[in-house]
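Posting for a labmate who doesn't have an account.
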Amino acid sequence: MAKTILVVDDSSSLRQVVSIALKGAGYDTIEACDGKDALGKIGGRKVHLIISDVNMPVMDGISFVKEVKKLPEHRFTPVIMLTTESQEAKKLEGQAAGAKAWVVKPFLPAQMLAAVSKLVLP
């Protein structure tokens, strides 16, 4: 059975690019437009990995990661932040919230898929 990856970004074109790359590598995807939307979509579903933007309306990526980590079924779900943010302070904030990797946009799909394959839950 394919593993499911949640893609959270306020840019629909970016969600589409990431989803196409992931589907091409054999993953299923769930797409959400911000943290709040994502929290609504993962309730009760097994998600093997989350890829999230940092800067989004309604609920930003770091707040979203903090909320996800409070959910017992998603406490150990790995999170990759996919963002234009490259400052060390933001990265540390993301790590403190529970992010396992930080990929800066623009990114190469191969680079993102390498991070995904290392972190995705069995």
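Reply:
Got it, the structure tokens are right above this. The longest strand covers residues 4-8.
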